Amino acid sequence: MAKKSEKKVHILKQKKAVSPWISWVLLMAFAVVLSAFMYNFMVSYTKDSTEDMKKIVYNTDECRLVSINIESACMTAQALNITLQNRNYIRIDEMDFRFYSGR
Q1: pLDDT tens digits, residue range 23-38?
Q2: Which domain holds residue 18?
Q3: Three-state secondary structure along the chain?
Q4: Cα–Cα–Cα angle for 58, 63, 66, nearest 5°?
């Protein structure tokens, strides 16, 4: 009987622990699932953001309500004076001008 119990103890000492392997497999599976979730979230987020941006950029309703008339323009060597008149009811807070040389 003592020999049998010694044999069991000897067999148990030879077996390596399985729990570290299981923990690593579970940890890697969790990382893969989390990365798949983040990938799906980011793809849907960028699609939604792109659609919202397209709606804002391609909305021309406000542009149709703006009308500007150039009353006069005068250019000197150092300055350009332009007189503009707003012809509609929408307030214009600021304007950007881009000038290009014709050369």
Answers
A1: 999 999 999 999 999 9
A2: 2-57
A3: CHHHHHHHHHHHHHCCCCHHHHHHHHHHHHHHHHHHHHHHHHHHHHHHHHHHHHHHHCCCHHHHCCCEEEEEEEECCCCEEEEEEECCCCCCCCCCCCCCCCC
A4: 175
Judge whether 72 lies within some domain.
no
Q: For the segment 50-91, what is each residue's pLDDT rounded down to a tens digit?
A: 998 888 878 777 777 788 899 999 988 888 899 999 888 888
Q: Which two tokens stand for residue 78?
A: 């150092």
Domain assignment present for residue 9? The answer is yes
Provide the number of structural domains found in the chain: 1
